[in-house]
Specification:
The complex is a heterodimer of chains A (467) and B (204). Chain A has 467 residues and is an alpha/beta fold. Chain A has 18 helices and 18 strands. Chain A has helices at 6-12, 39-48, 78-94, 109-115, 147-156, 181-192, 207-210, 214-222, 238-245, 248-251, 256-263, 315-325, 345-348, 351-361, 379-387, 390-396, 446-455, 461-465, and strands spanning 15-18, 24-27, 30-33, 58-61, 97-99, 124-127, 141-144, 158-161, 165-172, 200-205, 231-233, 276-281, 288-290, 298-300, 340-343, 371-374, 422-425, 440-443. Chain A has a five-stranded parallel sheet with strand order 5-4-3-6-7. Chain A has a four-stranded parallel sheet with strand order 11-10-9-12. In chain A, helix 2 packs across helix 5, helix 6 (181-192) runs parallel beside helix 8 (214-222) and helix 14 (351-361) runs parallel beside helix 16. Chain B contains eight helices and seven strands; from the N terminus they run βααβαβαβαβββααα. Classes of the chains: A alpha/beta (467), B alpha/beta (204). At the A-B interface, helix 2, helix 3, helix 5, strand 8 and helix 12 of A face helix 4, helix 6, helix 7 and helix 8 of B.
Chain lengths: 467, 204
């Protein structure tokens, strides 16, 4: 048999049929929906007078447009409240399971899917959200779709897709102290550029990837879209199986053993070919930070901002980005003032992220001039943080643990960064205005965010780790 | 339902010579709370069109009366970032029928095709020349012939062929969408599900 990539194995087994021009009718095993990108899809079903084809294969949560304080009170903003209520009504009417605000399973869609055991190896997963790639950490083909495609999945459990090309990104070696999975992916994106993997699906491999926990792998896969890739996946191994075995609802399933067996071969065969291969050395990766207005504009925290070379493409875009950020070429970022720090999002809102941040700030004090937003990714993460006493550590250091949601990652709720202010953020996008009109976002790891929160300045976290 | 049909379009163009224009710029997240597809055009490129006090930014191309038309010409990697289809709805609601670039982000491209907004991929050199021409001469007209897959600068300027998935081309020419097709093969999809169930039983 011809050796196959993991991606091809999963994709090919989900093709219902191939139509003219090469598009595949791809069967979707698990569909997640949220309040922002689903209402128009349900309207489409109503206009056609059709039901949801397989309601049990869709799960709903409210996450994008919700407050992260006083969640027991009605949502203040009328449009947001209406959108969340619309999701509630649609789920009721079409028979879809829904984890509403305050439900113990509520949270960011890409945090709850894995932690509740909905994300299973070897499956296809879609959601009207580009960070659906997160689920690829479990050896799944998971990618973001638009609302018309959400409607397709609701109507038929399938979507029409062209098969993307394949790229393998191998990261070998050991990470230095103070360097996290977030730094791996920010490093990769800075090298690939924000459009460098457009048209491709990524497989992450290599010893540095294998050494990561499931949560670290999710952080890496999460940002695949930030280099243009449809998604990114990682082969299953013992780490995957141990994580899944710790989810009671899964491990108690009578067919769990046979599922485990079926997941064993979810890896790329030796000799399988990729359209592109890129290799990185984990040992040279340093804590990363972005200086511009797309995630490709990133550098090691001790580097200087690149010069604008008018003979090279992208000069106008880079000049505009630096002007927006209030930075100049050749500038070093450490020491620069920070006004806000955001810990959270589907990229870094899991328990390991909260632990890393809390342990870093333990016994220290938040800089008084910094406003910090510490937002767990889900109710379960929030509860676990409290059970572990992280909320106390945080509070002693001057931080407050908020309630779960997407929060300041896209600032659809009140968690906005004011115009002109600098935010060190563990989220995934530093686009102009992403965290509020005029906000200036610097993407970084939870450790770099913690260091900024303590000093009030952009700080290499290794400087504080060594003390 | 979106207007899907597309065959031939002649128009002047609006140049936006920036790369990596993300969907947060096309429609900022704070305008995504609506539950219908209409009305997003009002906030298209909101934070580039208006300053933080809500005054028009005269320097932005959509506020420049010299540039009009239903075709947007933008730098490479247009539509990157969020999967929000609202970005496409904002462009179509504003009146755009086609976007020209040297490459598009994948999800944006799919969303466009699903809403009758034609993403026209042209070679980078052609794109740079086109951007220069239309910036210099805003009255320049172009013609997009979907059936012939031909993008031409009128008259008698340069022409370039563009690629499009043959199935999607047919859908646009006829004004059909994917859901019509998927609904027509629901029995085949159910058959796929049944075969998978059998396979799982056999492997136990």
């Amino acid at each position: 048999m011809t050796p196959k990539t993991l991606f091809d194995k999963i994709w090919d087994s989900h093709v219902v049929r191939t139509i003219e021009g090469g598009s595949d009718v791809l069967y979707i095993d698990q569909h997640f929906i949220h309040e922002v990108t689903s209402p128009q899809a349900f309207d489409g079903l109503r206009a056609r007078g059709i039901p949801v084809f397989r309601p049990a294969k869709t799960l709903a949560t409210a996450d994008h447009n919700i407050p992260t304080i006083d969640q027991d009170l009605p949502i203040k903003d009328e449009l947001s409240r209406n959108q969340v209520e619309t999701l509630n009504e649609n789920c009721k009417k079409f028979g879809i399971e829904y984890f509403s605000l305050n439900h113990p399973n509520n949270g960011i869609v890409h945090v709850i899917g894995p932690e509740l055991g909905y994300t299973l190896p070897g499956t296809t997963i879609v959601c009207g959200d580009s960070h659906t790639s997160t689920h690829g950490a479990f050896g799944t083909i998971a990618f973001g779709i638009g609302t018309s495609e959400v409607e397709m999945v609701l109507a038929s459990q399938c979507i029409l897709q062209n098969k993307p090309k394949k790229i393998r990104i191998t990261v070998n070696g050991e990470l230095q102290k103070g360097v996290t999975p977030k730094d791996i992916i920010l490093h990769i994106i800075s090298q690939m550029s924000s459009g460098g993997a457009t048209g491709y699906f990524v497989e992450y491999a290599g010893s540095a990837i294998e050494a990561l926990s499931m949560e670290g792998r999710m952080t890496v896969c999460n940002m695949s879209i930030e280099m243009g890739a449809r998604g990114g996946l990682i082969a299953t191994d013992l780490t995957t199986f141990e994580y899944l075995n710790n989810i009671p609802s899964l491990a108690n399933r009578p067919d769990f053993k046979s599922l485990l067996l079926s997941w064993r071969n979810l890896k790329t065969d030796e000799g399988a070919s990729f359209d592109r291969e890129v290799v990185f050395d984990a040992g040279i990766i340093k804590p990363m930070i972005t200086y511009g207005t797309n995630p490709g504009m990133g550098m090691a925290i001790d580097e200087v901002i690149p010069r604008i070379n008018n003979d090279r493409e992208g000069a106008v875009t880079l000049a505009k980005a630096l002007d927006y950020m209030g930075f100049r070429p050749d500038m070093k970022l450490p020491g620069h003032q920070v006004d806000y720090v955001f810990l959270g999002s589907c990229t870094n809102g899991r328990i390991e992220d909260l632990r890393a941040f809390a342990h870093f700030v333990k016994g220290k004090k938040k800089a008084p001039e910094v406003t910090a937003l510490i937002v767990p990714g889900s109710k379960r993460v929030e509860q676990q943080a409290i059970d572990e006493g992280l909320d106390k550590i945080l509070s002693e250091a001057g931080f407050e643990l908020r309630q779960p949601g997407c929060s300041s990652c896209l600032a659809m709720n009140e968690d906005r960064i004011p115009a002109g202010k600098y935010a060190v953020s563990t989220s995934n996008r530093n686009f102009e205005g992403r965290q509020g009109p005029g906000s200036r976002t610097l993407l970084a790891s939870p450790l770099t965010a913690a260091a900024a929160a303590i000093t009030g300045k952009i700080t290499d976290p290794r400087d504080l780790l060594n003390n | 339902m979106p207007k899907l049909k597309f065959d031939i379009l002649e128009s002047t163009c609006i140049p936006l010579p920036l790369e990596n224009i993300d969907t947060d710029q096309i429609i900022p997240a704070r305008f995504l709370s609506a539950t219908s597809r209409e009305g997003f055009g009002e906030n298209l490129f909101r934070d580039w069109r208006y300053d933080t006090s809500g005054n028009k930014n005269d320097a932005f191309i959509l506020n420049n009366q010299n540039y009009k038309g239903t075709v947007l010409v933008a730098g490479k990697n247009f539509g990157c970032g969020s999967s929000r289809e609202h970005a496409v709805w904002a462009l179509t609601d504003y009146g755009f029928r086609a976007v020209v670039s040297s490459f598009f982000a994948d999800i944006f491209k799919n969303n466009s095709l699903n809403n009758g907004l034609l993403p026209v991929v042209v070679p980078e050199e052609f794109l740079n020349d086109l951007l220069e021409i239309i910036q210099r001469e805003p009255e320049t007209r172009i013609r997009i012939d979907l059936d012939k897959q031909l993008f031409s600068v009128l008259p008698p300027g340069e022409s370039v062929e563009f690629e499009i998935n043959p199935y999607k081309k047919k859908c646009l020419l006829k004004g059909l969408d994917d859901i019509d097709y998927l609904l027509s093969i629901r029995e085949i999809i159910a058959g796929y599900e049944f075969r998978n169930k059998l396979k799982r039983c056999e492997s136990k």
